[in-house]
Specification:
Chain lengths: 115, 112
């Protein structure tokens, strides 16, 4: 069964450093998303991406964040200068977009720890 | 704005007990409703969904019915197993390919 994959599974970084989180969405999907879950809190939407541009972003997704689809398979989230409060689990998701099926399928997540 | 409220956990049950996890929502329009499950150390997996009022989603013995009149989507299972121990998230999709709005999650612990 096709699935969303994410790398790395864990990342530890120093405050102020740049990190790139990588995702490979399900191959025929057209809509891509990033969410995050701070430990013990609810899952929060960050950004959605379609047709090579951002379609919606939340207040959390400020200028420190960017997304990119550098090739036909990867979808990346970059945090330019990490802060302590960026420590969270980051989930990538994708949805079909062609058949009216809007269900979002999630990857296993990247746990980011900022020290 | 749209929101989802779930009952607080943790919910602790013995094996074979009946499970209900309450979920209510506030939304404009006609959202789709989802239950996702997060097993320890893993990501979010879609458990079931319903796309319109009175639809019942079901999977792996779990069921939830989309009740527009009570704005609810309660998750039920007749007989839980230890392997059902996880965090369960109710979520709302406003329609189209927009963001999902999640509830806070309810941790379920099932003991033998």
């Amino acid at each position: 069964e096709p699935e969303v994959t994410q790398t790395p599974s864990h990342q530890v970084t120093q405050m102020g450093q740049e990190v790139i989180l990588r995702c490979v969405p399900i191959s025929n999907h057209l809509y891509f998303y990033w969410y995050r879950q701070i430990l013990g809190q609810k899952v929060e939407f960050l950004v959605s991406f379609y047709n090579n541009e951002i379609s919606e972003k939340s207040e959390i997704f400020d200028d420190q964040f960017s997304v990119e689809r550098p090739d036909g398979s990867n979808f990346t989230l970059k945090i330019r200068s990490t802060k302590l409060e960026d420590s969270a689990m980051y989930f990538c998701a994708s949805s079909d977009g062609t058949s009216g099926e809007e269900t979002q399928y999630f990857g296993p997540g990247t746990r980011l720890l900022v020290l | 704005g749209d929101s989802v409220t779930q009952m607080e956990g943790p919910v602790t049950l013995s094996e074979e007990a009946f499970l209900t996890i309450n979920c209510t929502y506030t939304a404009t329009g006609y959202p789709s409703l989802f239950w996702y499950v997060q097993y320890p150390g893993e990501g979010l997996q879609l458990l079931l969904k319903a796309t319109k009022a009175d639809d019942k989603g079901s999977n792996k013995g779990f069921e939830a019915t989309y009740r527009k009149e009570t704005t609810s989507f309660h998750l039920e299972k007749g007989s839980v197993q230890v392997s059902d121990s996880a965090v369960y998230f109710c979520a709302l999709g406003p329609g189209g390919y927009n963001k999902l709005i999640f509830g806070a999650g309810t941790r379920l612990a099932v003991h033998p």
